[in-house]
Amino acid sequence: xxxxxxxxxxxxxxxxxxxxxxxxxxxxxxxxxxxxxxxxxxxxxxxxxxxxxxxxxxxxxxxxxxxxxxxxxxxxxxxxxxxxxxxxxxxxxxxxxxxxxxxxxxxxxxxxxxxxxxxxxxxxxxxxxxxxxxxxxxxxxxxxxxxxxxxxxxxxxxxxxxxxxxxxxxxxxxxxxxxxxxxxxxxxxxxxxxxxxxxxxxxxxxxxxxxxxxxxxxxxxxxxxxxxxxxxxxxxxxxxxxxxxxxxxxxxxxxxxxxxxxxxxxxxxxxxxxxxxxxxxxxxxxxxxxxxxxxxxxxxxxxxxxxxxxxxxxxxxxxxxxxxxxxxxxxxxxxxxxxxxxxxxxxxxxxxxxxxxxxxxxxxxxxxxxxxxxxxxxxxxxxxxxxxxxxxxxxxxxxxxxxxxxxxxxxxxxxxxxxxxxxxxxxxxxxx
Length: 432
Known about the structure:
Blueprint: E1 3-4, E2 8-9, H1 15-25, H2 36-79, E3 83-86, H3 95-102, E4 108-123, E5 126-135, H4 137-143, E6 150-153, E7 164-168, H5 169-175, E8 182-193, E9 196-210, H6 215-218, E10 221-225, H7 226-232, E11 241-246, H8 252-262, E12 268-271, H9 272-275, H10 277-315, H11 317-325, H12 330-361, H13 363-374, H14 395-421, H15 425-428
Parallel strand pairs: 5-10, 7-9
Antiparallel strand pairs: 1-2, 3-11, 3-12, 4-5, 4-8, 4-11, 6-9, 7-10, 8-9
């Protein structure tokens, strides 16, 4: 066993681990009053902090992107549907048979007919374009969650023949109306008279207001009873289509494919992954890009380990030479500096994971604090679909970030450690 130059034999543990740990926590005793050893320790500390900040930032950003994806999906599907069945020219005549046939599928939990149309709403001198959806309130609650987001009135206040209307919160504020007040709907289907084509006008009473937290729907969706919609838009007994809710929303594409075969009629079937594909594809692409960009920060911090170890090898050449004369092998010397550099990466990664997890779990507290402190609004309702910063911490993301960071840190140790193993003892001790 190699002998220590000062205290006999080395401890009965592997000497590479012992010396590597000692180099990591010890200052340079050979600096003779200069700051060389302290400077190396400072560079090692900067490397640890860089890795920790990069890992923490990456975990928080991925958690926020996951939260956006989850929140966006929940809010869209709270108003939209998992699967939608429509007929030619956006009209479906035999919708009860279509709904009954669709509900035979084991994945279909509920169905509801609907009418979709464009119209304009006016109140006093204010005018807004909107998407009008005709629904059956009792069935609509089975396929959408609008009833859970009512801030005034009730969805079941929509009754046939009474011409009630439920507005999104932003739309109601834009028109400056409250429940009990009236709005005038202008339908695109006109009346042909000797004087020309006149628009169809109908007054509706506001019976409720909803807010789902997604500006697109809160500012541009109005609900009326299905019978009133068929009468206003001259559909007779036809509807625009049937909306379905599934047991597992991620099976929507397979269910749509099965229904296309089983229904056996001329219908068009779409699912939420197609209707809103751009939203989810954009979020996923942005998540991947952010992962790559922030991982470069981790890589830069990890490769600071290279400069740390190069300086350490230069500073410890005499120690390396002594170890070699005591019988240490080049492989053993290499292990010492691999352990030294890997410890920097491990400590930085663990600190970053701890900090990132804590921040990701408390985004809902941290972000409002900075908004109040800086008096700014990071996510405006008028610009973003989601006005609050969500977070969804996933174990696989944390594990992936930690493993990639450790791998980069390990790779950064290889060249300096190999260089240390090539030190010639005679050359290193010539001027000692």
